[in-house]
Design a protein that fits this description.
- The protein is mostly helical and 224 residues long.
- Helices cover 78% and strands 2% of the residues.
- The chain contains 6 helices and 2 strands; from the N terminus they run ααααααββ.
- Strands 1-2 form a two-stranded antiparallel sheet.
Length: 224
Amino acid sequence: MTTLSLGPSPARRDALARRIRLLVAATIAYNVIEAVVALTAGTLASSSALIGFGLDSVIEVSSAAAVAWQFSAREHAVREARERAALRIIAVSFLALAAYVAVEAVRALAGAGEAEPSPLGIAIAALSLAIMPFLSAAQRRAGREIGSASAVADSKQTLLCTYLSAVLLLGLILNAAFGWSWADPVAALAIAGIAVKEGRDAWLGKGCCAPTAQGQACANSPVR
């Protein structure tokens, strides 16, 4: 008679928890740097997109900190108890980000001001576009294997930062090359819609299922 495994062993679960803590720490450290650079560049260039991107980094830090708090507990039972609170913090972060991006996009489209070209902004957006997908994918894999919805949700927050990096980079390049200041706020509105959906999913606890006998099932997650 074959016995089916119902998930990671305690040793594997501890290893995954340590990996998630390290990935979250790396995400927090990078986003602190990203926030400082983006806010500085945005202020110098009068760019609402860069300032919004910098504030997104602040929100990303709060999301990662929530998961760090959850996985700071050594006992699996304590981590599970903290899961719901961590998910709520992540959901609120998503919705706050969506609200800010939408308001700033509408203000920009209404002619609240035109941003100057920002080489520093282009550099930080390009760097984030290169780094964030790897951090997101690594945390998502670990979160799914351990069965943590909050870790998966936080990885989606990091992935959203990747999308925002792409939008910001495109907007800054178009503005610098052609003076198309409307490109960034139009794309930002689409990102705000994605943030609302991810915030709702995090609030409802969607995004990762408990490990099954065949491995990990994450059918509810829109991120593959």
